[in-house]
Structures are given as C-alpha cells and as structure tokens.
Write a structure and sequence with these properties.
Layout: E1 2-5, H1 23-30, E2 34-37, H2 39-42, E3 52-55, H3 59-63, E4 68-71, H4 78-95, E5 99-102, E6 113-115, E7 123-125, H5 129-136, E8 140-143
Helix pairs in contact: 4-5
This protein binds iron/sulfur cluster (SF4).
Iron/sulfur cluster is lined by residues 5-7, 13-14, 38-40, 103, 106, 108-109.
Length: 150
C-alpha cells in the first residue's frame, strides 16, 4: 500500500481549499493500491486555513523540538503539525504501507524542498514534519515530481 498526499489525489485539502490533482496517482487509488492522507487536516486544521512554514530548521528538527511551524499570522502551529504526522504514521502502520508519495514544498509533506520560513516564496532544501516522521520509520519517500508510477 502507498500513502499519497490527499491533495495530489484531487481532494480539496490544500490550505486555500484547492488541490494538486495528478491523474496518474489517482489511478493508483482507484486500483486500491493507495491511501489518501492529509496530515494538516488529521492534525485538526480547518480547510481553508492560514498557510504555515517551518522556521529555524526542517521537519526532522521540528520532531526534536529544535524548530517550529509558524503560520503567517505569527502563531505557533507546531503541535498540530506533529499531531498530524503521528496520525499519518498510525495509518502507515495499520495499512502496512512501505512507501509514500508526498507533495513537495509543503511544511508537512515536502520531501526535499521547503519554503524558508520567511513567507517570501524562497525555496530551500528541507523536509516537512510528516515526511520526516515517515522517513524516521523507514518508509520510502517519493514526490509528485519523481516517483516510480508514471
Ligand atoms: S498537508 Fe499534505 S496532503 Fe494536506 S494539503 Fe498539504 S500537501 Fe496536501
């Protein structure tokens, strides 16, 4: 089983109420091979919601308590992001998923790229909170840009 960011499957769970549908990934779900996850919704965030970025590090550092997730109103949303990541990990364990295809640049789902925490649109190398918890658990991570199911 493969975990896939819900927004990539056409679910309107993005912060702005939209999605990032990738038809080739939706096909995997229709074949019964994939499970949609949205860690921010699972953590308790509403949709639409205020956009967030990781400040002071990456998702691995958030899990260690060395960085925070902040929204663009300056509010600390770290706890919600960690809660959502843990919920996704439970789904991985329950479903036996060994890989995940996640939306790049998200503070939850980003695998190799992230916004730099300044809300200026600047991209840096970095991993999101959910991607980090899955990586720490040995789950293979792919992105919508690079995965073996094209
Ligand atoms: S948290 Fe992940 S699944 Fe949810 S909208 Fe953001 S990128 Fe998509």
């Amino acid at each position: 089983m493969i975990l896939i960011s819900g927004c990539l499957l056409g679910i309107n769970c993005r912060y702005n109420g939209g999605n990032n549908l990738k038809p080739e990934l939706l096909k995997l779900m229709k074949e019964g091979r994939a499970i949609p996850i949205c860690p921010e919704q699972l953590g308790g965030a509403p949709t639409p919601r205020v956009p967030c970025e990781i400040v002071g590090g990456n998702g691995l550092e958030v899990l260690k308590g060395r960085a925070k997730v902040i929204n663009n109103l300056g509010e600390d949303t770290t706890e919600l992001f960690i809660r959502g990541a843990r919920e996704v990990l439970k789904i991985a364990w329950a479903s036996g998923a060994h890989e995940a295809i996640l939306k790049e640049r998200s503070p939850s789902c980003g695998v190799k790229e992230a916004y730099d925490g300044s809300f200026s649109g600047k991209i840096v190398c970095g991993i999101g909170v959910t991607a980090a918890i899955l990586k720490n658990s040995g789950i293979e991570l792919w992105t919508e840009k690079k995965h073996p199911y094209c």
